[in-house]
Design brief:
Blueprint: E1 6-10, H1 11-14, H2 22-35, E2 44-48, H3 49-56, H4 63-75, E3 77-79, E4 93-95, E5 99-103, E6 106-110, H5 113-119, E7 125-129, H6 139-151, E8 152-153, E9 158-160, E10 164-165, H7 166-173, H8 183-201, E11 204-213, E12 216-226, H9 249-257, H10 261-270, H11 286-302, H12 309-319, H13 329-377, H14 379-392, H15 394-399, H16 406-412, H17 414-427, H18 429-450
Antiparallel strand pairs: 1-7, 2-6, 3-4, 5-6, 8-9, 9-12, 10-12, 11-12
Length: 464
């Protein structure tokens, strides 16, 4: 089994109005992780049900329940981007999956073409741990934890959500208006209990804040702080500190001097809170502040005035020893250059992704037009394919409107359209080759354009 340990999840896919169960949310995350790399390349994805159950830590013997949960995701319509964090795209309402079935121990599933392009290479995302999500016992804790992960600043190990109206919070948690109508009960069941679960099982410490209008609570805000050590209730999780490749440069520099890992990480986490209150500098970046103290240490060592390097450095940082000879200009200039380079590279990446999304959308539209033309020429083929699909997926059949002609249902029902089009493309692949070849060559050219990381240059924006 080669399954990822985390899923890159678009912020808009975290901020969803939903009534899905805890098992369904876990399963959707695992399926997205499994399909992620192939989202722009394939239409249908496969995963052994044994692997899916193993990653979810689910009893694979109860396959009927898991099958029922997955099939329900096909008919489950959700409102995406509830908090409007992604202001650039109108997300609207769609199903979580366009297709899901289990046959011969294999789970076959698909997303709508539009959803595939949006879920891949998102502008705003959170890395959701697939092992950590299995710690939760309630869907509210899982949903709130994902929200906190999304707003966490990885550098500062701290973050906070905007104020969320109670109406929006109910949407995010899948709680109807008539459930827990009094805030006191809502606060206990859907705020305090999930927070307690998160604080118990993860390396997060979450707090809530209420906003009142006329003595009535109208909105909630959540603050999240990541600690260096997981709670004991989680059990041993390996080393206390991240691997060296994930280690911030400051921590690495402090450890090289001989500082204990715990001291180095404490300084990094607390930042200027580590410095005595009356000694804290103003208008100085923390990285520059630490480099100044390291420079002072080397200077004093050269003068033979330091007995203990670590002891001197800790005092210098805590008490803000002065270092008049330190010049931060070169450091700042280098930082600005690096920032400009990173910005340019990021700008190019966004433009390339925008071009790819536009091409993929145009390709999918052209493929669908050809499918519709085929069915116009041969209506019996549409009847044959839809009847076969309805035998496998009764939920999808119920979503169709019997008073409408079959072709209209096919055009209006996105989930049905995706499955039907895929069947036609599988049956007559040669008829679709010219369209695929045209767009695939352009997509390949864009991928090649994205590979060189050095010497960034501006890319012309896509012309629609």
């Amino acid at each position: 089994m080669n399954v990822k340990k985390e899923v890159i999840k678009h912020s808009a896919a975290i901020h969803i109005q939903n009534d899905i169960t805890l098992v369904q949310r876990r399963a959707w995350n695992v399926l997205l992780a499994n399909a992620y790399d192939d989202l722009p390349l394939k239409d249908v994805y496969f995963m052994p049900i044994h692997d899916l159950a193993q990653v979810m830590e689910f009893d694979s013997k109860n396959e009927a329940y898991l099958k029922e949960a997955l099939e329900a995701l096909v008919g489950c319509k959700v409102k995406w981007n509830v908090l409007d964090k992604d202001r650039e795209i109108e997300w609207g309402v769609t199903t979580l999956l366009a297709q899901a079935k289990i046959k011969n121990g294999i789970c076959t599933y698909a997303y709508s073409p539009e959803m595939r392009t949006r879920l891949h290479n998102p502008r705003m995302y959170a890395r959701i741990s697939l092992s950590m999500q299995n710690k939760f016992n309630s869907k509210h804790a899982q949903a709130l934890w994902e929200l906190c992960v999304d707003y966490l600043n990885e550098t500062k190990n701290y973050g906070e959500t905007p104020f969320i109206s109670l109406e929006s919070y109910r949407m995010l948690m899948g709680v109807a208006e008539d459930m827990y109508p009094e805030f006191k009960r809502l606060n206990t069941r859907v705020v305090r209990d999930p927070i307690a679960e998160i604080n118990k099982f993860t390396d997060f410490v979450v707090e809530s804040e209420c906003r009142k209008e006329r003595k009535k609570v109208t909105a909630l805000k959540f603050r999240v702080r990541r600690t260096l050590e997981l709670p004991k209730s989680v059990g041993k999780q390996g080393t206390l500190f991240p691997d060296i490749e994930d280690m911030p440069g400051i921590v690495h520099d402090l450890k090289e001097i001989g500082l204990a890992a715990s001291d180095a990480w404490e300084i990094w986490q607390k930042r200027f809170d580590y410095v005595d209150g009356s000694k804290r500098p103003q208008g100085v970046e923390f990285e520059t502040y630490i480099q100044e103290k390291l420079h002072l240490l080397k200077q004093r060592q050269a003068e033979g005035k330091v007995k203990s390097a670590t002891g001197f450095l800790l005092k210098a940082i805590k008490q803000n020893y002065a270092n008049p000879e330190f010049v931060a200009g070169d450091t700042k200039k280098k930082a600005r250059e690096e920032t400009n380079t990173q910005y340019l590279a990021e700008h190019n990446r966004y433009l390339l992704e925008d071009q790819k999304r536009a091409l993929q959308t145009n390709r999918d539209e052209e493929l669908h037009k050809l499918c519709a033309r085929i069915f116009t020429e041969d209506p019996a083929l549409l009847t044959e394919i839809t009847e076969a699909i309805f035998k496998e997926n009764s939920v999808l059949k119920k979503m169709c409107q019997p008073e409408k002609p079959l072709f209209e249902n096919y055009q209006d029902n996105l989930s049905l359209r995706v499955l039907v089009d895929q069947c036609v493309m599988d049956r007559y692949p040669k008829r679709f080759l010219p369209i695929r070849a045209l767009y695939d060559s352009q997509l390949t050219a864009l991928d090649a354009q994205a590979r060189p990381a050095n010497a960034p240059r501006l890319i012309e924006p896509v012309r629609r």
